Amino acid sequence: MDSHYMIMEKSKVQIAQQLLDENLISEKEFVDVKAYESLKIFSLHNELLFLLYLAVLLFTTGAGILIYDNIDTIGHTVIMALLLIATGVSFYFSFKNSTGFSRNETDFENPVFNYLVLAATLLSGIFIGYFEFQYQVLGSAFVALLTAFVGFASAYYFDNRSALSIGITGLSAAIGISATPQALMHGEFYDNPALFYYGIALGILLLLWTEYSEKTDFKKHFSMVFLTFALHLICICCLTGMADYYWPLYALFLSASVVYFYWKSHKIQAVSIFIFVLLYGYIGLNIVLFKMLQAADSSAFFEFLLIFSPIYFIGSIFLFIRSIKQFNRKKYKSLP
């Protein structure tokens, strides 16, 4: 057994010991945990699923590269026919093995079909994009909306979170938000302030849909996906907008967003949301402090800041780690 596994095993036993000391589990349950860990069982389930996910991404990426490199040799009609056949076959077997639509969480009997749904969704997006590239009859916004529709339909019918991510990404692209390296390098996102409003508006819509889904018990297990996208959309747009003349408005909205997501992370016990809330809030706070220092324009104050800054950043790191530890401690205490 390697050292990494020893550390993981020790951590699990220590957690069980801590739960026992706090009377959250019984002595018998603690003994069962130690006995299970002593078996040294290693599951390949997650590793195999990851390889399947990687295989789907490599296959769809390879299909795109193949189309690009052999466009003149194969021909447009043949390429679109092959894409359409591959997409149709993938959706056919997905529908055939699906349990049907349900408002609650469902799953395939064989998890392989989840990745077949992902492949079908990606292939359909490639087909739609290639069709538009070749004939240019739909428009980029409509292509993005159509891709988003396929993603949302696949996500809600087959209960697939990966397809849901594709749907939200397509919806973001439809309003003009692009996070591609080319767009960032050319400053396309920063040169269009209207995108800040669109991104914040889309983030709010995702939050409203999340609250509605949770209250009506309609695929409420999708909440984590919606919250993650909404968090990044709203906070990134606010932080970027704080470089604008109306930065105080963005700062106020960022503050309100941080408070909401901080409360939400505790409510659903999502450590990833909590960590990003701290990061975005910390970055926003530093931008506000920098703006205030610029307005003060005092050389003596800047000299004091240079001396004080190491203590400030070290203290920030300490508080960041301490907050995460406290969050995890509360999370374990709340476990049934």
TrEMBL record:
It comes from the Bacteria. The chain crosses the membrane at residues 48-68, 74-93, 113-131, 137-157, 164-183, 195-212, 224-242, 248-263, 270-289, 301-321. Keywords: Membrane, Transmembrane, Transmembrane helix. Residues 18-162 form the DUF2157 domain. The keyword Iron-sulfur does not apply. Signal peptide: none annotated. InterPro entries: DUF2157. This is Predicted membrane protein. It comes from Flavobacterium noncentrifugens.
